[in-house]
Design goal:
This protein folds into four domains: 115 residues, Sulfite Reductase Hemoprotein, domain 2; 167 residues, Sulfite Reductase Hemoprotein, domain 1 (2-Layer Sandwich); 88 residues, Alpha-Beta Complex (Sulfite Reductase Hemoprotein, domain 2); 152 residues, 2-Layer Sandwich (Sulfite Reductase Hemoprotein, domain 1). Helices cover 37% and strands 19% of the residues. The chain is built from 18 helices and 21 strands. The strands form four sheets. Strands 16, 17, 18, 19, 20 and 21 form a six-stranded mixed sheet that branches. Strands 1-2-5-4-13 form a five-stranded antiparallel sheet.
């Protein structure tokens, strides 16, 4: 069963994907027979999403806006069985990676992907990697506008525009359409934040954010931009960047570097001057453009339900587990009687985001049964059924228990996120598991509020690595593995609920190091102590770990960690 795609490709896009798979099959045969050099083939394989890592080629499959149909998920399961090791890995870019596909099989895999409107092209190359959006776009109760539609407008325009084609580095754009920013717009090269004011509907424009090795929070360069001017203003922004990039003789500067060095006020003024030259031109938007982009997405037909429609109650022995799951993994929905449900891929002794072929097929069946055949991939590497009837919650939970995807660690509980990048070994997994085991044995585990915990083997793993509430980052020292602990990060989205109404959502913030480097065996005790301090200091269950850090400061926690290190 193919199922319906939730993102609808234009006929030309689909034809291009098929043509590329045929073309790459020929290029691969020529390379394997010695007709193409390594250097020549490198750019070709990168254009088709293939990365040579330590052990085998890795294929990264792009999933537009993180949206999948049940039929596409079944195809991914089939690919993992036929050409990989019967599993895949969902990453923080809302893509899926296959790590053991033979190079000679890659063209056949690409052809299979194209048959279900999926592609791997430009998954790894420079340019716009993807658009970061609210995982709950289109269904969030606090939504001002649907960021899916506006991201699609930008995507269609950018692939045909020279300013975007010349981008020299991995360029990331985030669009937030709700009153609470769940896309971390200030952590991206360009961030668009929807606002509604007396001037109408528009966007705040942020530039220069980056969560690489030297994390930087973006700068506001325009507090309000009318929606009709969005594309012309983006064109002006990219033009200023490209002009300075061409002048730079010392390399290719990132946008954050240019904004910092000009400095921000000068950059904003130069963008404004360039924009005035092109404002009101052919790239200006109107309502017909917006409607056309909206038609690229297929939405389910919702039933006329009431929020009072409750699921079948669990048995007495199930109440505790079911309640923990419902509190953590079930999210509010725009439509009465519906909820969104997160399926945790962060449990057990496997990397966060790993999923077996059997689980993929089981989730596809659940999407058909409970979720209109649609699902999404979250930046936290979980799966989301976006349109579940509230009355079906208990039955869904029972089936998730059977396939091992009901771990209650997505929302209001501690979420550990072991991170790794393509081509690196999984050094962080044992430590993440040790922390899990330490926390899970606590009597008060399910009374812990929201704590976003990141465990990473290195410091180059993206937004979440630098903005989790607690971060543990590893490094090599004299041939041994050491870890540093930091606190106070906030990406506004992490594991926050969709429902608005809380004033403590904060803003994007980068963590602060506390204490000295520690060996791996001391880290679980450190994390446990941090949690205990949090529980002692919080004013209420609603106060998150990061809010406590903001209120009392980091010095208290530094002293606690120092006492552990010297023990």
């Amino acid at each position: 069963m193919l199922g319906h795609s939730v993102y609808i490709y234009e006929e030309g896009d689909q034809r291009l994907a098929k043509e590329r798979s045929v073309q790459f099959a020929d290029q691969t045969r020529r390379y394997l027979s010695g007709g193409i050099s390594d250097d020549e083939f490198r750019s070709l394989r990168l254009q088709n999403g293939i990365y040579i890592q330590r052990h085998a080629p890795m294929l990264r499959v792009a999933i537009p806006y993180g949206m999948l149909s049940s039929g596409q998920l079944r195809k991914l399961a089939d690919i993992s069985r036929r050409w990989d090791r019967a599993y895949g890995h969902f990453d923080t870019r809302e893509s899926i990676q296959f790590n053991w596909i033979r190079l000679e099989d890659a063209p056949d895999v690409l052809a299979d992907l194209a048959a279900v409107q999926m592609y791997a092209s430009q998954g790894i190359t420079n340019g716009i990697r993807h658009f970061t959006l609210d995982n709950f776009s289109g269904i969030a109760r606090d939504e001002i506008l649907n960021p899916l539609v506006w991201s699609e407008l930008i995507r269609q325009w950018s692939i045909r525009h020279a300013e975007f084609a010349q981008l020299p580095r991995k360029f990331r754009v985030a669009v937030s359409g709700a009153t609470i920013d769940r896309a971390a717009v200030r952590a991206h090269d360009i961030g668009l934040e929807a606002v509604r004011s007396h001037e109408g509907l528009g966007f705040r424009i942020w530039v220069g954010g980056d969560m690489g090795r030297m994390p930087t929070v973006g700068t506001l360069i325009r507090p309000f931009l009318a929606w009709s001017d969005l594309l012309t203003y983006l064109r002006a922004t990219l033009h200023v960047y490209n002009v300075h990039r061409c002048k730079d003789s010392g390399g290719t500067p990132q946008l954050k570097t240019l904004v910092r060095d000009l400095p921000p006020g000068v950059f904003a003024q130069q963008v404004e001057e360039q924009w005035q030259l092109i404002r009101g031109g052919v790239a200006s938007l109107n309502e017909s453009h917006v409607m056309s982009a909206a038609l690229r997405f297929r939405w389910p037909k919702y039933a006329d339900l009431k929020d009072v429609d409750l699921p079948r109650p669990p048995s007495p022995k199930e109440i505790r587990s079911y309640s923990h799951w419902q509190r953590s993994n079930v999210h509010g929905h725009l439509m009465p009687g519906y909820v969104a449900v997160s399926l945790s891929l962060r449990a057990g002794d496997v990397p966060a985001g790993d999923i077996t072929a059997d689980q993929m097929e089981a989730v596809a069946d659940l999407a058909d049964k409970f979720g209109h055949g649609q699902l999404r991939i979250s930046r936290e590497r979980n799966l989301i059924l976006t349109d579940v009837r509230r009355s079906d919650l208990y039955d869904l939970w029972r089936e998730l228990e059977i396939i091992g995807l009901s771990t209650p660690n997505v929302g209001s509980q501690v979420g550990t996120d072991d991170g790794f990048a393509a081509g690196r070994d999984f050094e962080s997994i044992p430590l993440a598991n040790a922390i899990h085991e330490r926390i899970d044995t606590l009597d008060y585990f399910h009374d812990i509020g929201e704590i976003d915990l990141s465990v990473a083997s290195n410091s180059d793993l993206g937004v979440h690595n630098h903005t989790g509430h607690i971060g543990v980052v590893g490094f090599e020292k004299a041939g041994e593995r050491w870890y540093q602990v930091s606190i106070g990060g906030n990406q506004n989205a992490g594991f926050s609920k969709v429902d608005p109404g809380s004033d403590n959502v904060g803003t994007v913030a980068v963590r602060t190091l506390i204490g000295i480097p520690l060996p791996e065996n001391q880290i679980p005790a450190v994390v446990e102590r941090l949690i205990k301090i949090y529980l002692e200091l919080r004013d209420s269950h609603a106060e998150r770990f990061v809010d406590v850090v903001d209120r009392v400061g980091a010095e208290r926690l530094k002293r606690e960690l120092a006492s552990i290190a010297s023990a």
